[in-house]
Design goal:
This protein is α/β, with parallel strands linked by helices. The protein is built from five helices and six strands; from the N terminus they run E-E-E-E-H-H-E-H-H-E-H. The longest helix is centred in the first third of the chain and has 11 residues.
Amino acid sequence: MTTYTKINSPAGELLLVGEGTMLTSLSMPAQRNAPIVRPEWRRDDEAFTAAARQLSAYFAGRPTRFELELAPDGTEFQQRVWRALDEIPYGSTTTYGELARRLDVPRAEIRAVGAAIGANPLLIVRPCHRVIGADGSMRGYAGGVERKVRLLTHEGALQPMLV
């Protein structure tokens, strides 16, 4: 049975979706391709207690490696790319090209790596926001480039901008 909960965060209200206690999706408001709560889903705040606690620690500034049961739906290639995202340390970034190199994906297929990253259904938990362009530019992020910048600034990977 599909369960869900919603939690408030500095990134907006997060929608957590899962099968029992296994997290299948974490999305943000106005996110591209975000799931929408369906009538047959059951709200179960307790099923996501560990996720809520770890997200709270993350937003409180404690470097976090999420330790959650994950069950995102994706192809074998997407799953491989998403697991590689888990290896990008808190407070750091990598490039699409470097991630492709680590995965032994030919340079000509870097776009496939980018597409898999763009299809990541577990924002924040699987830190696709830590992947940037080779020139340091902030490439697309399903939660919005502004949120990507805020998350990287929060983690200390980017310096805060003074206005």
